[in-house]
Design a protein that fits this description.
This is Glycosyl hydrolase family 31 C-terminal domain-containing protein. Keywords: Membrane, Transmembrane, Transmembrane helix. InterPro entries: Alpha-glycosidase_related, GH, Glyco_hydro_31_C, Glyco_hydro_b. By secondary structure, the protein is an alpha+beta fold. It has four domains: about 1-55; about 60-270, Beta-galactosidase, Chain A, domain 5 (Distorted Sandwich), CATH 2.70.98; about 280-365 and about 420-600, Glycosidases (TIM Barrel), CATH 3.20.20.80; about 365-410, no CATH class. The protein has 15 helices and 36 strands. The strands form seven sheets. It has an eight-stranded antiparallel sheet, with no helix packed on it. The chain is globular. About 40% of the residues are buried. Residues about 1-20 and about 335-350 have low confidence and may be disordered. Bound molecules: 2-acetamido-2-deoxy-beta-D-glucopyranose (6 copies). One 2-acetamido-2-deoxy-beta-D-glucopyranose binds near residues 82, 84, 86 and 87.
Length: about 700
């Protein structure tokens, strides 16, 4: 009963309640729906706003102790800055792959404070890691791009705005800094500048140094191409390839350009440094241009040249003969015949007398196919001593033909053991036969396969030929000279600078100091400058002023090398002047070079230094390309403009005092001497005041 009573009292039928609830529910649901849509819209707009408008254009992606990396979204650049944001080391444009909208990048390796990772979908992966293995003042970021597809071209560009850059490769009009150079995109390998003037030349390292205190070291193992756009940027890229090679480099920053180079430059020579035979510094080098067609005639010429140099009191000299003359002499049968009657006459032509001539002989790893030697090599089964291609049909070898000195030639296979043993023996016996201490190797540069548009293989990619040849030449002792070099600045080898034009431009006289600074910065302190007056044209110089200004610069370089004899180009008194400068080289310059050679051996500091070495915070110092320092105690500031007898001289180092060698006047460092007077017979030299 109770049950039924409690059930009945409900006055409102269930149906009514139900329908009322239903009506209310629908209105509410509609409102909620509308609200939802509105919220959704607001959120979408908010997100879009946040993503596109409000989101900061910059964000830190990695922070070190004093520096860090900022991702700048609008320009797609990576900015290397101090944490206090008061100094920018470099801006790296990394947005050079085909993705239209750059998203907000966030670290996919966020668990690790020293790493940054990001992936651009199906294009490329980026990984940056902070490297702590350097000293406290230096911080390094190792940057690796890995393509995900084989048609991805990776390209990073380093801005040259407000940064002066040094290092990299030589060019036919050498500049210091390299900001003023234009170079089309091309493989970053050494070429012969005489035949390819718009290519990279003779001394090349994958190392760039910026005036803000930054160094860039590109990984050695992957082929890269480099372009330079004047005053704008230089770009490093890896071509698309099936190997999907990564683009990898390390960026290091420090307090000054000098301190960063001290730290990073040592990575360019990880091996024990050794000095070449410095006897050559004492001996002026005279080029002999023989056009003789017979060995006997050539010998007569050489002997009379030698006697003339003696007679004129030019001291002990070396006479350099070219490859053709070397071949001519070596082909001559020099067997000593002890024939009673003719003994004295024969001995005059005897090879043992050639020894007294102090010859510097020249050779190359090429053999002309027209030469008698080449026929002989074929007969002696040496055809596989040369760079060859395998026939796909029968596997036979055919040598790759290239042009060398105007002749179709083959090039030594530097990776073949029998070939290099044979080559070393040949050069050694040539040296002995001609009694020559010094040997110059030409034709070291260039990649035969790339020149022929072929795919290099067998370890001969990039500049490996040049590298192999340098280590091969090292086996011949410490008196060799090569015409190009990379990753071998620790070897006891001289590097011959590229031929210059006989003019006052950057392809001639004005290019000497930029080259000296470049070579020395990269660790090639033992170079032989191109002969006075330039040898590009192969003709004798006629401009007396150019001869004298050139002579004045070369006096302060390691080896004084002559092409045009002073008695050919100039008045009698110039010969006198030449003698005086040779004397000055021996009395003043060589002792300095010897002193700083020790510093180079122990610390890796360049012997020839730019003025920014001791003025690393003075913006003026970065543009000075017509002065150099020997160590940090002698400043040489030659005249490099035709007709000038005045120049401005930047005296570096605000804590230094400089003594003018001519007048003994003392000047403060960190100043600019305006209109310093200097006659044709003088070269301004300042010595650091000690005490
Ligand atoms: C930047 O700021 C730091 C600390 O705030 C200071 O030590 C440094 O000298 C500044 N550098 C420059 C270039 O102003
Ligand atoms: C971060 O990654 C680096 C390189 O992979 C590694 O050496 C380091 O130990 C990692 N650090 C942490 C905290 O996981
Ligand atoms: C490049 O910059 C230097 C120094 O700022 C300037 O002297 C030179 O004229 C510039 N060259 C060009 C082609 O703009
Ligand atoms: C060069 O080699 C010769 C002979 O091997 C040696 O006597 C000389 O000391 C070496 N010179 C240098 C600078 O190492
Ligand atoms: C060089 O010689 C080596 C050893 O004989 C051989 O394997 C290689 O294919 C040769 N390279 C070229 C480019 O001829
Ligand atoms: C050469 O120099 C010497 C002194 O060094 C001098 O006596 C001589 O007159 C000079 N000769 C010429 C032609 O200038």
């Amino acid at each position: 009963m109770l049950h039924t009573r409690t059930r009945n009292p409900s006055p409102v039928p269930d149906v009514n309640w139900d329908s009322g609830l239903k009506e209310m529910n629908e209105t509410w649901k509609g409102a909620v729906g509308c609200l939802g849509v509105a919220i959704f819209f607001i959120m979408t707009i908010g997100i879009i706003y946040w993503q596109v408008v409000d989101q900061p254009n910059k964000n830190w992606i990695l922070k070190g102790r004093f520096s860090g990396l900022i991702w700048e979204r609008s320009t797609q650049t990576l900015v290397v800055q101090t944490l206090s944001e008061n100094k920018t080391f470099a801006e790296i444009d990394i947005g050079n792959f085909p993705v239209m909208e750059q998203p907000f990048v966030k670290n996919l390796c966020w668990l690790n404070k020293t790493e940054f990772c990001y992936t651009w979908d199906s294009v490329t992966e980026l990984k940056i890691s902070l490297d702590h293995s350097f000293s406290a003042g230096t911080e390094c970021y190792s940057i690796t791009w890995t393509p995900i597809h084989c048609d991805v071209k990776l390209k990073d560009c380093f801005s040259m705005t407000d940064v002066s850059w040094y290092g990299g490769a030589t060019s036919s009009a050498q500049q210091w800094p390299m900001n003023n150079v234009n170079m089309p995109l091309q493989p970053f390998i050494i070429n012969n500048l005489k035949s390819s003037p718009s290519a990279y030349g003779s001394v090349l390292e994958r190392y760039f140094l910026g005036s803000t205190g930054i160094a860039v070291l590109i990984s050695p193992d992957v082929p890269v191409s480099v372009s330079i756009e004047r005053n704008k940027s230089f770009c490093v890229e890896t071509p698309p390839s099936t190997d999907m090679s990564p683009l990898q480099y390390t960026v290091c920053v420090g307090e000054t350009i000098q301190s960063v180079h001290q730290e990073m430059g040592s990575l360019l020579y990880e091996k024990q440094r050794r000095l070449p035979n410095t006897e050559i510094l004492w001996m002026p080098l005279w080029k002999h241009y023989g056009i003789s067609d017979s060995a006997a005639k050539l010998e007569r010429e050489l002997r009379s040249f030698h006697n003339k140099l003696r007679r004129l009191g030019l001291g002990e000299c070396l006479i350099a003969i070219d490859e053709h003359s070397t071949m001519l002499l070596s082909n001559k049968d020099h067997k000593l015949t002890v024939n009673q009657g003719e003994k004295s006459r024969r001995q005059r032509r005897d090879p043992y007398l050639l020894k007294n001539l102090n010859l510097l002989i020249t050779t190359s790893p090429y053999a002309s196919v027209n030469s008698e030697q080449f026929q002989m090599y074929l007969r002696e089964d040496k055809e596989n001593y040369w760079l060859s291609l395998h026939s796909k049909l029968d596997g036979s070898l055919s040598p790759v033909l290239t042009k060398w000195k105007g002749q179709f030639s083959v090039r030594l296979n530097i990776t073949s053991k029998p070939a290099i043993d044979w080559y070393l023996n040949t050069v050694t016996s040539l040296k002995n036969k001609l009694g020559a201490e010094y040997v110059a190797f030409e034709g070291v540069e260039g990649n035969t396969f790339i020149e022929q548009s072929m795919q290099p293989s067998g370890g001969l990619e990039d500049d490996h030929y040049t590298g192999f040849l340098a280590s091969l030449v090292d086996k011949l002792g410490n008196s060799t000279i090569i015409t190009a070099s990379t990753r071998s600045n620790y070897l006891p080898i001289f590097v011959q600078m590229s031929p210059l034009h006989s003019d006052w431009s950057y392809t001639g006289l004005k290019g000497i100091i930029p080259s000296v600074l470049h070579y020395s910065l990269l660790g090639y302190n033992y170079f032989i400058p191109d002969a006075i007056g330039g040898t590009f044209s192969g003709e004798f110089l006629t401009d007396e002023e150019l001869f004298i200004r050139w002579l004045q610069i070369v006096t302060f370089l390691p080896v004084m090398s002559f092409n045009t004899p002073p008695w050919v180009c100039c008045d009698d008194w110039v010969l006198n002047l030449t003698r005086q400068y040779i004397q000055k080289h021996q009395d003043f310059v060589i002792p300095l070079l010897t002193k700083y050679a020790d510093e180079w051996l122990s610390l890796g500091t360049p012997i020839y230094r730019p003025v920014w070495w001791i003025s690393p915070n003075d913006p003026l110092a970065f543009m000075v390309d017509d002065e150099f320092l020997i160590g940090d105690e002698v400043l040489v500031a030659p005249i490099t403009k035709q007709g000038d007898v005045h120049r401005d001289i930047f005296l570096p180092g605000s804590s230094y005092q400089w003594v003018d060698m001519k007048t003994s006047q003392v000047f403060d460092g960190g100043t600019l001497l305006k209109n310093y007077r200097c006659s044709l017979l003088e070269i301004p030299v300042f010595v650091k005041k000690t005490s």
